[in-house]
Amino acid sequence: MPSEESLKFRQMLMEQRAQMAKVFATHQPTLEQERAGMEAAWSQVAVLTDVTVEPTTFAGMHAEWVSAPNSRLDSALLYLHGGAYYMGSVVSHREIASRLARACAMRVLVIEYRLAPEHPYPAAVEDSVTAYRELVESGIRPENIVIAGDSAGGGLTVATLVALRDRGYALPTNAVAMSPWTDLECTGGSMVTRAPFDPMLTPESVRGITHHYVGEADPRSPLISPIYADLSGLPPMLIHVGHDEVLLDDAIRLSDRLNAAGVAAGVKVWEGMWHVFQSFAAYVPESQQAIDEIGNFVQSKLPANAK
Taking the domains of the chain in order of start, what are their residue ranges? Predict the structure, then answer.
């Protein structure tokens, strides 16, 4: 059963979504306003007090190194933020990065890949591949690297792995995808069946933003919608998804296709949870439980020298 805290938080999200729907009915915000709104909301959430945040330029991108006292220097988690490919930044994902740094005992590198529609596909994939290569060139071995992401960043995580494999690069030790957006055609059955229960997303809102990133490309391109990619040879992957989100089938189909390709992938569907619920660990106990599970998975796959 979902916790009392999650039920209360869920109700708040539902009320906020209803209020925003009324606002959008008469005033459609610009991209700049949406981006600023996301930044403002998440800038109010403090990172864990013992975590260090170091702004940097990495592979030509603005980025942040987020480290906990137990984070090892010989390993790194490359974090690809969500935001539907047109929003999101180091600010919006600083808090979840701080929790992952502690749970995974790794430094977390959050990069600001180029955003659509100014930079549509393949900009995000090119930037994430470049960041991974820079990590390796800096001296961190692939077996000590993890790639993780949420929502669009979860889909980008898979696309990055496919691109790295196809280009002949050594792959990271494992990967994590939280509520991954893997089908930009939005054909999953949960777009209908979970719509009444999703407190954050609607099918209309998701379908209405795909064009920002897809542009003139085919939405079934393997690096846009990685459920259509050849997934063989990818590293072990943990997938988390909320039972009550319209992207539920994006995660389940990804897991099914990874397993069919011989990849050790597991999907956990969290009862009563919503899109990227891990971001609310300051308020919802299930969110921290999920972060801890991710940490256990990541650490279990690292070689002994990186533990």
Answer: 4-23+49-306
Here the tokens at position 242 are 């909320």
Helix (H) or strand (E) holding 35: helix 31-43
User: CA angle 132-134-137, nearest 5°?
Assistant: 115
Q: Give Cα separations from 66 to 168, 188, 234, 299 (angstroms).
A: 29, 35, 26, 17
Which residues are registered as beta bridge partners of 149? 80, 177
Count other Cβ atoms within 10 Å, centred on residue 236.
16
The three-state secondary structure class of 23 is helix
Task: Supply the residues annotated as catalytic.
Answer: 151, 245, 275
CATH architecture assignment, domain 4-23+49-306 = 3-Layer(aba) Sandwich (3.40)
Q: How far apart are CA 241 and CA 121, in angstroms?
A: 24
pTM equals 0.97
Q: Which of 104, 241, 94, 78 is nearest to 160 (CA)?
A: 78
Antiparallel, parallel or unpaired: β 106-111 and 61-67: antiparallel
Rounded Cα distance between 174 and 144, Å, is 9
Query: pLDDT tens-digit profile of 59-96?
Result: 999 999 999 999 999 999 999 999 999 999 999 999 99
CA–CA separation, 231 and 85 (whole Å): 22
Burial 194-218 (b: 16+ CB within 10 A, else e): bbebbbbbebebbeebbebbbbeee
CB of 250 closer than 8 Å to CB of 269: no
pLDDT at 306: 55
**Cα atoms found within 13 Å of the Cα of residue 231, Cβ hemisphere only:** 25
